[in-house]
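[step 3/7] fold_predict: job queued, chain A
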Amino acid sequence: MRRAVCLFAILAIWVPVSLASSKANKKGFTVTDPVQVQSVVLSPGHYEVSWMQMGSNVPVTIYKGHKALVTIPAASVVNQESPYEGNAVVTTKEPNGALELTGIEFSRIAVMLPAGSQPGR
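[step 4/7] structure written:
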């Protein structure tokens, strides 16, 4: 009985701590013009980007609602001081005229996607 109580106490502390440490960071952003990320075109609307840690070579996933649309395997997620209160979408114009999503800036965090994340480059 005493072992069961000890095991329960350990699990009661360990499980919430481990779940909190593995929880993804998620922030919302808005796209006002169609933008391309890899082979996916994001239509104007609200999206979320998630990541598990800060640094370079971090996988990030873009969601529309609960549906994962695209995962970028090697983005950079860094702390920053930004003048933006909400978010700012950073794009570059491709030779074909399409806009490519290259970053998302929040008030304290920047998610920078690798240059040339389009397939076939």
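[step 5/7] annotate
Residues 4-11, 13-21, 117-121 have pLDDT under 50 and may be disordered.
The chain is about 15% helix and 50% strand.
exit 0
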